[in-house]
Write a structure and sequence with these properties.
Number of strands: 9
Distance between the termini: 16 Å
Number of helices: 6
Strand order of the largest sheet: 7-6-9-8
Largest sheet: 4 strands, antiparallel
Oligomer: single chain
Helix content: 25-40%
Structural class: alpha+beta
Length: 205
Amino acid sequence: MAIIRTLGICKFPPDERALQCHLMIISAHPTQHTGNPSWARTYVHTFRSPDFSAELVPVHTLGTIGSGGSYPDLRVVIDRYSSDNDFRMLCANGGRTLGGMGTMIGINLTSKLLECLPHGVSPHLHYCWVYRGKIVISSNDHTQIGRWSIVPLGSENSPIEPTPQRALEDGSVLFSMPQVASSWGELQSLLNLRGCKAEGCVAEP
């Protein structure tokens, strides 16, 4: 955190520092468990500029960072999980596979994002599950048939390869993560393919 503080206070000009920086760290304890030795005790901490003090997210509570969590329509899903035990149990019972609860919460947020389309917040979400010795990153890809969503529950499913959203033969629509750049070179290539230019931009380490 000392490095982050140095970067936040010393390196960037005041107007950029005013935009703030939020971080979230998810961890799994190497030995502690929740009653079943195979289920590690996990933690979620958030860090916010300018001091980046660690804030522990309580159990049965959803933590948020960034501007997306301030939208009232999204807060409905976040606050409902934190305060409505019946909704929380519905998420738990609907996702009995590893990571299934997270998928259930994610698809609820996805539906709300597609409904209200808040400015600057994408309905394409990255999911991240943390286990002892393993991290799984996937996306909220799913198939939409009318008002129904067909979702691969859990973190053990193979992620769907990114493809453009398209209509399928049966009238359903595949909602799939667009291509995401994993390096500065890939970002430049993506921008160039779309007729945009990255000239004058720099990537800070």
